[in-house]
Amino acid sequence: MATIADDLRPLHHPKTWIGRYVWSQDHKVIAIQYGVTAIGVGLFALVLSFLMRLQLGFPGRFDFIQPENYLQFVTMHGMIMVVYLLTALLLGGFGNYLIPLMIGARDMVFPFVNMLSYWFYLLSVIVLFAGLFVPGGPTGGGWTLYPPQTITGGTPGASWGILMMMASLGIFVIAFTMGGLNYVTTVLQARTRGMTLMRMPCSVWGIFVASIMGLLAFPALFVAAIMTILDSVVGTSFFVPEIVSMGEKTGHTGGSPILFQHLFWFFGHPEVYIVALPAFGIVSDLISVHARKNLFGYRMMVWAIVIIGGLSFFVWAHHMYVSGMNPYFGFFFATSTLVIAIPTAIKVYNWLLTLWRGDIHLRVPMLFAIAFLFTFIHGGLTGLFLGNVSVDVPLSDTFFVVGHFHMVMGVSPVLVVFGAIYHWYPKITGRMWDERLARLHFWITFLGTYAIFLPMHYLGMLGVPRRYYALGDTVFIPDSVHYANMGITIAAGLVFAAQGLFFYNMIWSLFRGPRADPNPWGAASLEWQTPDTPPHHGNWGERLPTVYRWAYDYSVPGAARDFIPQNEPPPAQNPAGGPQA
Amino acid sequence: MRLIAALTEKPWLTPGPGPSAPSAPAESESAARPWDKGVGLTVFLLVVTLLFTLMSSAYVMRMGGHAGHAGGGDWRPIGEPPLLWLNTGLLAAASLAFHAALGRARAGRPRRAGAALALGGALGLAFVAGQLLLWRALAGCFAGEAAAFCPAAAHGIPRGWAGDPAAAFFYLISGAHGLHILGGLVACALTGGRLARVDPGSLAARTGAARAVQLCARYWDFMALVWLALMGLFVST
Ligand code: HEM
Ligand SMILES: [Cu+2]
């Protein structure tokens, strides 16, 4: 433990290789641990989605996909993508890497807890995967895990699989809480001199608000998980009503399945924004940097993030329109849902206005950011359909919903993640990736996702239900559905294969890529101004930076360059960096 | 108000050093470290609040008191044995002991603060033991023994785990609370160890220790309040 010149927080200095890279307390190493684990798990979920597509595109051709396997794939795919990939990657990965660097801190304020957070996350992943090998296999109850069906006979994994899933989620919540405490406290406490709240880049704002939301929303999942485990193992009746399963009474009485749904969606809806807000923040920064323009309406952007975060705790029951709620609730929740569209639309307009007459450089991170605008607007519009009770009722549980949420919370954040990785890769590794491969990866991914998810809306309007292993001979399903399904599967295969380009590019460039400029995009925010690239332990060398301006001084009239770093003093000031009052 | 001022700053208008961020070390007073742990604890307590609020809401909804969504009509309130009140008293007493410890630690008497802290810890342990007795009594009800706690005593035959949601909720909620108390006890034991090792001659060490005790006291007050709210829920339903 030692303190550096002007920083009062002790910094933990590891002495051994293991201390530095395995049991590391350095936020950058933890970020990479989180990121690599999350991407690895996400790859598995991607494989699952391809297996599902194989079955849907060519029903019955693949013997190893039985109906129960299909349901297990759906469940694992959904849960992994939402929780173990996106939440972990955006908050554990990008949150860890970016927060200290963007606000000018040396590390998170509780580095040890931060380290524990990662190891608990890894444990939750291990338990999740252990669930694949228990008797009966993993649960097939759908990612929403609604009881009673998840814990009664007939559903795959009803005895062991569901327990492993719930245990894993419980551990994940603990891991997230430890991480989230760090992200929030660090933003509140460890900003460097001059870094006021409104000088923070939008990325930090998005991650900050999403962390608060996570801290408040995940307890609901935790409670739901524990109560389900008790219902299943001890035989309590929190959720499970009196039922006859396979001809026998289960012994439960009077439990309320709707109660589970309330708990689940009190977590589940904010979860959508836990994933979306960091993506919003990052996209704002990517667009501003690569359009060489300040972010249009910065304050509105920040307020919108905060307001969306707050409102999203009051809309959860829009997932329950068909669950038999009191209809007046439906009215309330439909209204609050549509109200969220206002701040969200403001954000979209501001992104477009930032692009307007910008000096747009169509580099790969920017391509992904613009692609996000397409998919997000698209998903947002179909969301307006589903937010209306009367429109939702016929569309509920069809592929329209699958198309909608993949656009808005599947593909959109993933595009941002790709953009962010390409954007910060030179800072993280000190190397540059290959431009041609990256462009190829972008175009196949972007066009491919449209080829996959656009037809799904059409299928949904025809009434094709979601979570169905096969459609069989159904009267209202025309032949065109089968052709569409085949086409979607082929597109999914292409997109799947194209990710190989990404991984190859990232790994190859790590060793063979040309050395990167410390600030290749000419970005103004603090993380690009570190004395070393990649940043060393402690980030800032001898002295913490002092911040003099916001993160968006691009193309300032009269300035020498087309950007002014946040830590560059205004001309009148003493530029030597001497003591400031 | 300060928050509103902070959030309405127009960052593009004001290049310059700006008002210092909260943790910016003041040139003069280099002994004080920014109190990250205090803020961290506050954030954590927010999470705990939500946890218990959600469990309590689930309790109320399962009772069937919630519009548009009936529980199964099988709700039978549990009894209120005297032990429940005794335990509540123990918890409150522990809280007082922690405050005594805080007063002494602030007055620069780490050893005596340590003693008060130990007393608080002992009372906390007694609380946990009392809760375990309650649990046993409730389990006894399921086994058919009559006791003050039993829903059966007032309302007919015992139904066991599956049939007595009120009892199941009592286990769930008081169990979660008990785990938080145990966690708090571990943290306070660590603080106690620190108090024992503190060098009474060093001002910095003493203030640091006093802050640690303050965290314990704050956590304890909070968990006591949570318990009072939970008691209110159990007793009124
Ligand atoms: C190319 C990539 C992807 C493909 C081909 C794909 C495909 C699918 C398919 C075929 C289903 C099952 C539909 C059904 O039978 O109900 C599904 C469900 C789902 N997917 Fe994806 N998906 C992809 C990426 C993602 C991503 C990035 C997310 C992140 C949020 C995601 C989240 C979900 C969720 C939450 C479900 C619902 C699971 C359930 O019904 O329980 N997917 N996906
Ligand atoms: Cu929602």
From TrEMBL, chain B:
Any one Gene Ontology BP term: aerobic electron transport chain
Signal peptide segment: none
InterPro entries with a match to the protein in the record: Cyt_c/ubiquinol_Oxase_su3 (IPR024791), Cyt_c_oxidase-like_su3 (IPR000298), Cyt_c_oxidase_su3-like_sf (IPR035973), Cyt_c_oxidase_su3_a-hlx (IPR013833)
Region annotation (Disordered) ranges: 11-31
Topological relation to the membrane, as annotated: Multi-pass membrane protein
Subcellular location per the Swiss-Prot or TrEMBL entry: Cell membrane; Membrane
One Gene Ontology cellular component annotation held by this UniProt entry: plasma membrane
Keyword Lipid metabolism: no
Molecular function as annotated in GO: cytochrome-c oxidase activity
Keywords per UniProt: Membrane, Transmembrane, Transmembrane helix
Transmembrane segments: 39-62, 82-102, 114-135, 168-196, 217-235
Domain Heme-copper oxidase subunit III family profile: residue ranges: 39-237
PANTHER family (alphabetical): CYTOCHROME C OXIDASE, CYTOCHROME C OXIDASE SUBUNIT III
Similarity comment: family membership: Belongs to the cytochrome c oxidase subunit 3 family.
Protein name: Heme-copper oxidase subunit III family profile domain-containing protein
Origin organism lineage: Bacteria, Pseudomonadati, Pseudomonadota, Alphaproteobacteria, Sphingomonadales
